[in-house]
Automatic annotation (TrEMBL):
Superkingdom in the source lineage: Bacteria
Segments forming domain VanZ-like: 24-164
Pfam families assigned to the protein according to its UniProt record, in alphabetical order: VanZ (PF04892)
Keyword Transmembrane helix: yes
Organism: Anaerobacillus alkalidiazotrophicus
Name of the protein in its database record: VanZ-like domain-containing protein
Segments passing through the bilayer: 13-36, 83-102, 109-128, 148-168
Amino acid sequence: MYKRKGLDYLYKVLFHGFLFLILAISFIMLAVFMAFRIESILLFLKRKIEVGTAIEFLKNIQFTYATAEISIARLGVESFLEFVIRKGAHFTFFFCLGFLFYRAMWASSFPKVLSFISSLCFVVIYAISDELHQAFTPNRTPLVQDVVLDSVGGLTGIVFALFIYFMIDHFRNQKQSVIKTSRY
């Protein structure tokens, strides 16, 4: 792709890798913003889901999140599903963020350990800043549990990227060893 010529190479790779990351984050933020229209989600759920079927399927699901019981019995079907969708969207957003940040670091030829640590730090700092932002937003509550959920989503994305790039390296090395042995 680029010839390795010191700092020029590094700047070009960093520019392209992080430009891709910024564009991806912008796209994901737009998608999440659109998905977080809670009124729209609740209206959609009321129109599309048969309450009896949803209750039968989900009635035994109950868990605690931030000291509050989350269940259909306590929240109702629509609010329960809206909660799960919102938290799932957060997890997915941070999964993509972690994956893409690791990918940008990996494409920039940073060592794997540095890429992993930098990506994880970025995801955790972003999750904390998101919760700090909620502290100043009316009708929103910052929660440590949300930071943990977001960070676990990011970590999962980073580990997924590690797995993919490990497999790519493995198959690339396997292919090269087959080529070397076939020459003899």
